[in-house]
Amino acid sequence: MSKTQTVTLRVPVELKARLEHEAKHQGVSLNNLANYFLTTQLSQVEAISMIDERISKKNISKLKSKVGNMLDAVPNNKEIPDWDAVK
What we know:
Layout: H1 13-26, H2 30-56, H3 60-72
């Protein structure tokens, strides 16, 4: 198990109440729920930052062209329902 450290975090009263309600509903401690939310959100932010960094080094026109070529290679199937068609 990894080491832990105590952090004091100020949150609005309403947010704390919502977190406590959800923790109770999930059957976990407030600490476990907060750690889960922080971990998942931070992972998403890190992933977006990594993608942004990689894209910033690319030529956007070339990327658009490549995506267009890939989409052009997809067969045009008239059997696709209207609700599922790309518009």
